[in-house]
Structure formats: C-alpha cells, structure tokens
Design brief:
Layout lengths: L10 H8 L3 H26 L7 H44 L24 H20 L8 H28 L7 H8 L8 H14 L3 H11 L5 H25 L1
Helix pairs in contact: 1-2, 1-7, 2-3, 2-7, 5-7, 5-9, 8-9
Length: 260
C-alpha cells in the first residue's frame, strides 16, 4: 500500500519550496493518480482473493475519490487564466481605441501569464499545512483509535512504512539526478520552475522533483483503499506513512531554509 499510493496533490507545493519543477510534478501527479485508479482494481484481487472487487465498479469508486481533488483545481485554474487573458485583451483593445493607436499596432495582442501576487504565492503552503492537521485527526480516529491489535503488528507496520518512505524518496532523488529533465535555459528555470528558489542545475531540480513524485503520497486515498479493499489493519501502514513523509518534508524544508 505504501508503494502503490499515488503522488499527493500537495507534492508540487513542497517541490516548489525546495526548488523543484512545479509544472513537471503537477503533470506527474495527475498521471499517477489516474494510473492508480486503473492498477488497483487489477492487482488488489490478487492480494485479497476473498474480496468481491470487480474492475469497473472499483475503478469508478476510486475515480470518484480522486477526481474532485485533481480536476476541480485544474479546471478552476484554466478558468481563471482564460478569464484573466480575456480581460487583458479587451482592456488593451479599449485602451488602444481611446488613443487611436489600433492601426499603428506592430504586433497582435498576446496573452499574459497569470500569476498570484508575491504576498499570496505562499498561500498554498499554509493551506497544505491546515489540510495535514485535519487529515491526521481523521486518520487517527479511523485507524489507530479503532484498532485493538497486537502491539507487535503495529510496530511492524510502523517500521515497514518508515523504510518504504525512505526507499521511495531516495530512489526518486537518485533517478531524478541521473536522468534530469531538459531545460529551456537558466532564465526559464529561475522564473517558471520556481521563482522563489535559489538557482540550481537541472540535475538538482529534477532530483527534488522526482524525490517528491516518488516519496510524497496521497495517504488519505491509501488509507481509504486499504480499509475498502484489503484488511483494515493494513491501513495503519498508510496512516504511519503520513507521519514519516511529513517529518521528511519538514527536515528538507528546514535544511533548505538554512542554506539561503
């Protein structure tokens, strides 16, 4: 469960704070979540033959869980950008008309890139922190507080989850460093990949991006899948992963802040 969970929707936020590629990780997050909706119904019956899972009902059930978190912000961002560009183009045309300069325009009016003011650019990070508080309370209520299992089983799940976290973050960083994403140049890297981060080589950017892609998981979906399709006790592993990945992220953010 710790390995099959898809990338968290909040992973691009942390990647951006660390200097990774927000664009690449957003794309990977979309792909990994939809891939999970296909892979889980195909593989979980092999793990738990006693379950009565069939592909299409399970696929639609998982899709129902992930689609609002993925497609909602995607279409909202698209609508904001489209609205901003429409307003910008009309405003330019009206301004040009007032000055009788339309005939003298040297080039057609182009779109501008929409971006939040710098004071609001940090807002997603604090939304992520708030969501973690809520998620931890819900997971504690639905897993740890309701299980009466042997302490040895719980310890084994905690340890296994810890090593799964380390392996995935480490593997992702290694792959990203060895196979860096192509770059359009240093200016593109500084402005578009993450304007707040110190300039890094593309190997460094890709290492951060792939590390978060592999290691930062959609744990709420993992807990739900474990409770729905497997033995509910297995959800403790996914629940513990929340703790390990956020301790790892906190450590990365602490180190990055003291490097500046």
């Amino acid at each position: 469960m710790c390995f099959i969970m898809p990338t968290a929707t909040a992973a691009p936020i942390i990647a951006g704070k660390l200097g990774g590629s927000i664009q690449n990780l957003t794309t990977f997050t979309l792909l990994s979540n939809f891939a999970t909706a296909i892979i889980v119904p195909l593989t979980f019956p092999l793990i738990n033959p006693a379950s009565d899972m069939t592909f299409f009902p399970a696929f639609l059930l998982i899709l129902k869980r992930i689609a609002p978190l993925l497609l909602g912000p995607f279409f909202l961002a698209w609508a904001v950008r489209a609205g901003f560009n429409t307003y910008y183009r009309r405003h330019n045309v009206m301004t040009s008309s007032r000055h009788n300069e339309i005939s003298n325009l040297q080039s057609p009016i182009t779109n501008r890139e929409f971006s939040l003011p710098k004071k609001l650019a940090i807002l997603p990070f604090y939304l992520w922190v708030a969501s973690i508080i809520v998620l931890m309370s819900v997971v504690t209520e639905t897993t740890i507080a309701n299980f009466h299992s042997q302490i040895s089983n719980i310890i084994i799940l905690l340890i296994a989850s810890f090593f799964a976290c380390l392996i995935q973050f480490g593997l992702g960083k290694w792959i990203g460093y060895k196979l860096p994403a192509p770059s359009k140049g240093r200016d593109y890297q500084d402005v578009l990949i993450n304007p707040a981060a110190a300039p890094k080589t593309m190997a460094g950017v890709s290492s951060i991006t792939a590390g978060q892609a592999f290691g930062q998981k959609n744990t709420s979906l993992g807990v739900w899948m474990a409770q729905t399709f497997l033995d509910p006790l297995s959800s403790l592993g996914a629940a513990a992963y929340i703790l390990w990945q956020n301790l790892f992220n906190a450590t990365q953010l602490f180190i990055a802040a003291h490097k500046k």
